[in-house]
Amino acid sequence: MLKALAVLLALTPVLAAAQDVELELVLMADASGSIDAAEIEFQRQGYATAMQDPAVLSAIANSAYGRIAVTYVEWASVGTEDVVVPWRIIDGPDSAAAFAAAFDGRPRRAFGRNAIGSALLTGKRLIETNEYEGWRKVIDFSGDSANNWNGPSIAEARAEVLAAGITINGLPILCRACARPGLSDLESLYAERIIGGPGAFVITADDMDSLADAIRRKLILEIGGEMPARDVADAQPPSIQRVR
After folding, report:
1. What pLDDT, on a 0 to 100 scale, did the predictor assign at position 80?
2. What b/e readout covers 42-78, taking b as 16+ CB neighbours within 10 angstroms?
3. 31-237 CATH
């Protein structure tokens, strides 16, 4: 009996223990029809640069385990969500540089009209099926619209994500070419419809030129588990934030 049990245990696959991190972070970037190829590249470069910023690396070093788990995903129409950079550990300059290098040569695979609900559920699935176990789980969602043209509704997806204990933070980009009307309300729509969970907040990029600063500031707050002084914050440091 004991011998048979020993043989059975020997043949049973050993499940790898989940790697502990303080934060599991899905960077969910807009690749819908309003985003051209140059803007896709600009967004990717913004995240690649921000992840290597000394202040971001300091926030990572000061986290509970000195490392975080990150993946970068582009979203558009339902079912086209593309994992551009798969899950990886960031624990210092070398791994941050490797994250940045992982963007090189990656084609765009996400196309079509907005499916925000589908994107949020994709982020949830990626968090629930990875090999990491974080104290905090966050979807960092960016885009230039709060419209949902296909797939699950935002409200339905948001409720499911929040029920799973995942926080959604928002990065609305108010103006890409300053030619599309109605964008002035975008940050309030993100605050009302998209973000949620413990400590959820919105940081706004007024245009593409301020996107890199917004990404950097948002990463610092997310990694540090902090909130800005108000739920809706600018990309600028707190001392010069504009109050709307």
Report:
1. 93
2. bbbebbbebbbbeebbebbeebeeebbbbbbbbbbbb
3. 3.40.50.410
